[in-house]
């Protein structure tokens, strides 16, 4: 998606360790006009799918997913990072390894908000090694719901998550795919 790529080039900062900082428009300050354009693009790309719910993960997916949910006219549920105290039989639970912090944490979704009738679009800000998305897929599977697709804002195409998700036959729509980036000169190349 052209405007997202241009924005990443203009305001994204490449950090050592394969981290792309987009704090000025996605991860700290949020550009809602940009989120609206992204939401419209996902609506177009998933036009053939019958989606009744959006699922994301706290915290950085929530803003994008909320604007997408308004575009699709459906509710948005976010998987919560759990304290052991919340782990009861009312929740679906899975473990996720964090790309940015390296830690393993548990996430939950209440059984009240995900059920076998649901046709889910998963939305997240970044796709790197795919741990976050694999965790969300597992929660949907536990609920007996159907995954209709996955929308990602920025995929780092040089990490393995994208290939892993596509190999499952799931429709994955990443609005910008970074092919390579260099922390030394700050350059970023996108997949054509
Ligand atoms: P994965 O689970 O695919 O390895 O990583 C996805 C999660 O890690 C995303 O939800 C995002 O919060 C975070 N993440 C991964 N790579 C980056 C990055 O380069 N920049 C930022 N800002 N977040 C990232």
TrEMBL record:
Protein task: Converts the preformed base xanthine, a product of nucleic acid breakdown, to xanthosine 5'-monophosphate (XMP), so it can be reused for RNA or DNA synthesis.
Pathway stated in the Swiss-Prot or TrEMBL entry: Purine metabolism; XMP biosynthesis via salvage pathway; XMP from xanthine: step 1/1
Binding site for xanthine: 20, 27, 156
Protein's UniProt name: Xanthine phosphoribosyltransferase
Pfam families: Pribosyltran
Quaternary structure, from the entry: Homodimer.
One Gene Ontology cellular component: cytoplasm
Keywords noted in UniProt: Cytoplasm, Glycosyltransferase, Purine salvage, Transferase
InterPro entries per record: PRTase-like, PRTase_dom, Pur/Pyrimidine_PRTase, Xanthine_PRibTrfase
């Amino acid at each position: 998606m052209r405007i997202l790529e241009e924005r990443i080039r203009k305001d994204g900062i490449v950090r050592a360790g394969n981290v792309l900082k987009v704090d000025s428009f996605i991860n700290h300050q949020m550009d809602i006009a940009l989120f609206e354009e992204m939401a419209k693009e996902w609506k177009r790309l998933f036009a053939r799918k019958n989606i009744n719910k959006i699922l994301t993960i706290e915290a950085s997916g929530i803003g994008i997913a909320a604007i997408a949910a308004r575009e699709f006219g459906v509710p948005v549920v976010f998987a919560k990072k759990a304290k052991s105290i919340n782990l009861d039989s009312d929740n679906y639970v899975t473990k996720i390894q964090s790309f940015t912090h390296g830690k393993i944490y548990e996430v939950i979704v209440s059984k009240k908000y995900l059920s076998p009738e649901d046709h889910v679009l998963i939305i997240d800000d970044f796709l790197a090694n795919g741990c976050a998305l694999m965790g969300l897929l597992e929660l949907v599977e536990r609920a007996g719901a159907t995954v209709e697709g996955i929308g990602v804002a920025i995929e780092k195409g040089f990490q393995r998550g994208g290939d892993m998700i596509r190999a499952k036959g799931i429709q994955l729509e990443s609005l910008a795919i970074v092919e390579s980036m260099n922390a030394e000169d700050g350059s970023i190349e996108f997949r054509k």
